[in-house]
Every structure is written in structure tokens, then in C-alpha cells.
Design a protein that fits this description.
This protein has 119 residues and is mainly alpha-helical. It has helices at 9-37, 42-89; strands spanning 94-98, 101-105.
Amino acid sequence: MRRSGQTSFAERAGGFLGRLWRTYRCSERRSANWLVARGLPDPAVVVVLWGIRLGVAVVLFHTMSWLALLVTIGVIVMWFGHEGALAEDGQSPEWKDGHDGFGLYDKSEWRIDIDNSDD
């Protein structure tokens, strides 16, 4: 028995995918019956339907491969762009022993972590 009256997202998504799968199978069955009515033997119909499935899978795989390649290139470009931006501005602080003792200094020799003066 159900505890709440609302359906969860997983139930709605499962119902949607189930209806989608049922629609696909029904249209495939209609296509197979149409091909048989046109005089194609049953083994040929199976081969044609598997060829269509394979073609769709190849197109989807090809599309996803290109999409993955574009995302990878985008991530690499952003990574190197970020590295280049850090190197260009030259303002990355560094730990060293300066005129106010050991601490974090910027490029103009000003100590950034002033709060600890017990050095």
C-alpha cells in the first residue's frame, strides 16, 4: 500500500520510459507486419529490423563520441586557459622568508598573512 498520494520522480520516469518502449515495440511490430504484407519473407524482415537498430545505434554512438570529444577539448582549453591566466598576472602569492619574517608574500613583497606577528 502506498504511503503518500504523490508519485515520485522515479515512478514518473519509469512510466514514461515504459510507455516509450511500448510505443517503439508496437511501431516495430507494425513495420514488420507491413513488410510481411508486401511479400518480404520473415527472416528478411528480421534482418531489415536488426539493420535499422544497428544503424540507429551507430548514429547515436557517433554523435556521442563527437560530443564527448568536444567536451574534452573544452575542458582542456579551459584548464590551459586558467593556467595561463595565473602565469600571466604574476600575482600568485608565495611562501618565503621576507622582511617581516616567514609568511605569505605577494609579488610586491607585501606580507599577506599579517595576522600572526609572533614570528
